[in-house]
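Lay summary. Proteins are chains of building blocks that fold into shapes, and those shapes determine what they do. In this project we predict the shape from the chain. Here is one chain we studied, written as its sequence of building blocks.
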Amino acid sequence: MSNSDHDSSDLIYGLDDRPPIRESSFAALQHVLASFVGIITPTLIIGGVLGLGSHIPYLISMALIVSGIATFIQARRPFKIGSGMLCVQGTSFAFLSSILAAGFIAKAKGGGPDEIMALILGVSFFGAFVEIFLSQFLHKLKRVITPLVTGIVITIIGISLIKVGITDLAGGFKAPDFGSLENLSLGLLVLAIIIVLNRSSNAWIRLSAIIIGLGVGFIVAGLMGKLSFDNLATLPLMNFPIPFKYGFSFDWGAFIPVALIYLITAIESTGDLTANSMVSKQPISGPLYMSRIKGGVLADGVNSMIAAVLNTFPNTTFSQNNGVIQLTGVGSRYIAYFVSGMLVILGLFPIIGGVLQNMPKPVLGGATLVLFGTVAAAGVKILASEHLDRRKLLIMAVSFGAGLGVAFNPDVMKEMPTLVQNVLGSAVTLGGLTAIIMSFILPDKTVVAEVQEDEAVTETSKSAAS
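And here is the predicted shape, written in a compact code that computers can read:
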């Protein structure tokens, strides 16, 4: 157990503590279980919609391997690339619409799976430079990266993800038995186990809450006849990364929507990293905080470049893993090394991932519902720490109205041009952009004064140095 001052906090192990191997492996496994479906689901959706067929198992393996590499970079922070925190990275849902649009452009030109992947990976590779470039100027964006904006973005992320959790709990999208008593009972059983165990005063029981909940749910689902492993026989023994396996191409029409999503994911990642800092008991303001944010967003861009090279889709920091940190009380960045190893092994040996892939949706939904809810609660906590005057309440009201409005009724954008639908059809994108634009239109005099003061100090330092 850590000897540092975590007794007064909710953390069992702090950011730089090194938990024993057994505790580290256990905590890492919970992060993997919480993020596994999120990592592979965008690939399953893209592969299914674009008709990639036999390529899908390989693409899933690459998604897992790249997530492992990206998570390691975030925690290890080589050359100041990364946040230096326990930030699990995975395939981003935010890019789904723009990537599908790129795939349809390639299809319209008569392209097959190779040509489709070549175009998607080409625009994803070059789009990553948008996020890499932006990361170097985040310190100049204090009027954008405020607790108000990040709190709004985190809350919208959590609320929009809750729909995924509750859908899984009821059986999964388009499930024939959606909402059945069996599905609801199974999901609620997992949810109840996690809640009860998380309230235990025993650190080990609390640490194990998610795994025990998922494990019990898996066993009960098997007894109910909800498990099937028929797909395992078709999986290869091992999959290895082959850089640029599908080639490389480019199209401006495909590039612009992807580039715009990279722009907004930089803000989304800022929100995720802020939430991670908060649950890890790190500062959410000041030089150290800004250094972590810049490094984390830079890693987002670099890792998305690596993803394109290794034949998978753009990566971003995952919100649900902040919930795992809060629920387990383990914020050590060294856990990320174990997470990375597990994800890479899952990718190299697809049969292991195949077993986890068969985890019944209600079981996962019972766990992810509380994790996604925790993300939303973290956003509310940031907003609650603000002095909410009329200006801030107005920005919150319009941002939540716009962002959650398209989440509740996506058809609101169906008459808009495809480019507008691709960019503004996401709750996080529209809500985040609304918060940013309104922050500029209705400037906070205190923040403006701080920015001017910082610029004056910087100019004075430059003058003194010269």
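What the prediction tells us: Residues 1-8 have pLDDT under 50 and may be disordered.
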